[in-house]
Amino acid sequence: MRCRGKRPDIRALLHGKGGSLEKKDPQASLASGDGTVTFYITRHGQTVYNVASRVQGWCDSQLTDEGIRVARLLGRGLAEVPFAQAYCSDAGRAVQTLNAVLAARIKKNPQAELPFIHVPDPRLREWCYGNLEAGPGAELHAALTRGFGEDLPFDELNRRLPQVAEVLADQDDTGRAERFDQVKARLESFFSEAGQQALAAGGGNVLVVTHSFVVRSVMYLLDPSRVNDPLKIKNASVTQVTYDGETFTLGETASTRWLGEMPPEANAIPFGFRM
Fold first, then answer.
1. How confident is the prediction along the chain (275 residues), in pLDDT tens digits per residue?
2. Please, how many CA atoms are within 13 Å of residue 115, restricted to the half-sphere of its CB?
3. Which CATH architecture has domain 35-266?
4. Less Cβ around it within 10 Å: N or C end of the chain?
């Protein structure tokens, strides 16, 4: 089954005084002044496939009305945070979320400086689930149960994140499902490059719109003891990572405080997994 969904344009018009979503010189972007970089890593807004409990990795579906609403809440919550640069994955749902966040942010605070908008980056894609893509979430659940020989609770699966990827890749007959080393390599490549680029421009805050298992993978790679902190990575939640040129440090994880309210539960813990 192939996923369908119109991929929004990253240069979509911002509604309000901000004008169009134009690229700016990253060297002229806002700097933190302390020579560090803080990544604000957020999961995209709720999508059609989230609500339908379908597997959504490299396939795509549009944001629901609720997904757009929560993305706008995030934009308003981040209105006073100066961002030097912004990135998103090349999935339409991530592009759509970034557009909604930046539009709401500039509408709430017309004086907010628009960050340098980078071309959507495939290194920020969700995990690829191979032949499970777009299928019922129950099929992913069943594949993990077969692979591990037991129905593990969600927190235990998170603690075994590299094994989860291997179990799914071993059962994929398309050859497309990613192994954890592949996910790790692309994420390390992205954050190292983006961190160095931001430092070269003076540091500052960097907005990143990506996906739930990307966020979970970052948490696992930086501090495995916090991989379940929290158990749920909700849509439009924010995880912070700081970079000083040598070390990435995990800060606040999957926080919804920027939203001013709790977002809906759709697919926060997907497909009926046990707590």
1. 334 333 334 344 333 223 223 333 333 344 445 789 999 999 999 999 999 999 999 999 999 999 999 999 999 999 999 999 999 999 999 999 999 999 999 999 999 888 999 999 999 999 999 999 999 999 999 999 999 999 999 999 999 999 999 999 999 999 999 999 999 999 999 999 999 999 999 999 999 999 999 999 999 999 999 999 999 999 999 999 999 999 999 999 999 999 987 666 655 555 555 54
2. 30
3. 3-Layer(aba) Sandwich (3.40)
4. C
Longest dimension (CA), the chain: 57
Exposed, middle or buried, 108 (CB in 10 Å: 0-12/13-18/19+)? middle
Contacts of 93 (CB under 8 A, 6+ apart): 5, 44, 45, 47, 60, 61, 62, 63, 67
C-alpha pair distances (Å), 156 with each of 14, 41, 225, 262:
42, 23, 12, 25
Question: Any idea what DSSP says for residue 111?
Answer: T
Asked whether 179 and 87 are in contact (CB, 8 A), the reply is no
Contact yes or no for 168/144 (Cβ under 8 A)? yes
Alpha-carbon gap, residue 211 to 201, rounded angstroms: 26
The two three-digit tokens of residue 254, written as one number: 């999957």
Q: Alpha-carbon distance 234 to 258, whole Å?
A: 12
DSSP letter (8 states) at residue 112: S
What's the chain's length in residues?
A: 275
